[in-house]
Design goal:
Elements lengths: L5 E6 L7 H14 L4 E6 L1 H4 L4 H4 L2 H18 L7 E4 L5 H10 L4 H5 L2 H7 L8 H15 L5 E3 L5 H17 L1 H6 L12 E3 L34 H10 L18 H14 L3 H8 L4 H27 L2 H30 L6
Parallel strand pairs: 1-2, 2-3, 4-5
Helix pairs in contact: 4-14, 5-8, 5-15, 8-9, 11-14, 12-13, 12-14
The structure holds tryptophanyl-5'AMP.
Tryptophanyl-5'AMP binds next to strand 1, helix 1 and helix 8.
């Protein structure tokens, strides 16, 4: 089957949306609107895979769902031209995930590093949902037969699993797929990860070897999209660095994770390459560079924070965007599910 190019990606409503989410994912979501039909999903079903103490309970989940939606829109995603919705409103995600549960192999899931990290030492006590998380993610993407998936580097392994699931489904049901008129036997595309830009892995401001993350206890480790200008300035000034001046060549960043991270953040925010940043700041003191970084960070993030604040103050409006997006998503999803059920052999009303 010739697949129309389509973009899908998701963000979990688990609080503390940060600069890593913005630069690693959302900035690219915005760009792709110019060239593709895009579907951006607030993955509330993924958000409940850890303990309720982690995701915060029903009121917090609803609040965070609206906040991620607001971040999408404040960053420049157009919910009229493209689709923005929350996952739980489209039943096909869970339905297709069940079919994929029977395609994916336990051995594949056992290799997932994110599960190992999130489950920690007490694996017996992790939820089945956390273990199954990547299968639901494959269902998210393939329910829309999406061909391209913009994500940060930490999602690469999950994307490979999505491709494996798509391929095994196409193989396992090949005869049935051809029997239903898809001559090349390709029911699902093999989705391609789009991991692009100078900040595909933004690191903690306190430790350049650790990823910037929503769950890190120290708030100083990350810049949140809702931080005000003073907080941003303080966090950047406190960010860990080393005693050397910045190098003039990118090679000089290789053994300096904190410097590399800050240069990458600047490059991504300014929309230039790391080499260009070093051309301007190489050889100079960190303090000067940090001042410039504070400026560019505030210039980019402050308008987004202000617009997010405005949007979340009107939850009815945000919810309407999600309902409208879900209605349009469901039309595509239902078509895939009808065809998938026929291919599997599930009887349905015609
Ligand atoms: P989540 O909510 O953890 O992260 C959302 C996006 O932000 C990226 N990201 C980062 N990028 C650069 N540096 C960082 N420090 C950083 N931290 C997070 C993530 O790579 C992601 O792109 N599993 C997904 C959600 C999901 C999904 C999907 C994504 C569910 N279904 C289908 C794509 C397609 C996740 O954990 O997102």
């Amino acid at each position: 089957m010739a697949f129309v190019e389509r973009v899908f990606s998701g963000v979990q409503p688990t609080g503390n949306l940060h600069l890593g989410n913005y630069l690693g994912a959302i900035v690219n979501f915005v760009k792709l609107q110019e060239t593709h039909n895009c579907i951006y999903c607030v993955v509330d079903m993924h958000a409940i895979t850890q303990g309720v103490d982690v995701w915060g309970g029903p009121a917090e989940l609803a609040r965070n769902t609206r906040e991620v939606t607001a971040a999408f829109i404040a960053s420049g995603i157009d919910p009229k031209k493209h689709i923005v919705f929350n996952q739980s409103q489209v039943a096909g995600h869970a339905e297709l995930a069940w079919i994929f549960n029977c395609v994916a192999r336990i051995g594949w899931l056992n290799r997932m590093t994110q599960f190992k990290e999130k489950a920690g030492k007490d694996r017996e006590n992790a939820s089945v949902g956390l273990y199954d998380y990547p299968v639901l993610m494959a269902a998210d993407i393939l329910l829309y037969r999406a061909t391209h998936v913009p994500v940060g580097e930490d999602q690469k392994q999950h994307l490979e699993l999505s491709r494996d699931i798509a391929q095994k489904f196409n193989n396992d049901f090949g005869d049935s797929i051809r029997g239903h008129g898809i001559a090349d036997g390709l029911f699902f595309p093999l989705p391609e990860p789009l991991i692009t830009g100078p900040a595909t892995r933004v690191m903690s401001l306190r430790d350049g070897t650790k990823k910037m993350s929503k769950s890190e206890p120290s708030d100083n480790s990350r810049i949140n999209l809702t931080d005000d200008a003073d907080t941003i300035a303080q966090k950047i000034r406190k960010a860990k660095t080393d005693p050397e001046p910045l190098p003039s060549e990118e090679k000089g960043l290789e053994t300096r994770p904190e410097a590399d991270n800050l240069v990458g953040i600047y490059a991504a925010l300014a929309g230039i390459g790391k080499q260009e940043v070093l051309k301007e700041f190489g050889g100079g003191q960190f303090s000067n560079f940090k001042n410039a970084l504070v400026d560019v960070c505030i210039a980019k993030l402050s308008p987004i924070a202000a617009e997010m604040k405005r949007l979340v103050a009107d939850p009815g409006h945000v919810d309407q965007i999600l309902v409208d997006g879900a209605n349009r998503a469901r039309t595509i999803a239902d078509e895939t599910m009808r065809a998938a059920k026929d291919v599997v052999g599930f009887i349905r009303q015609r």
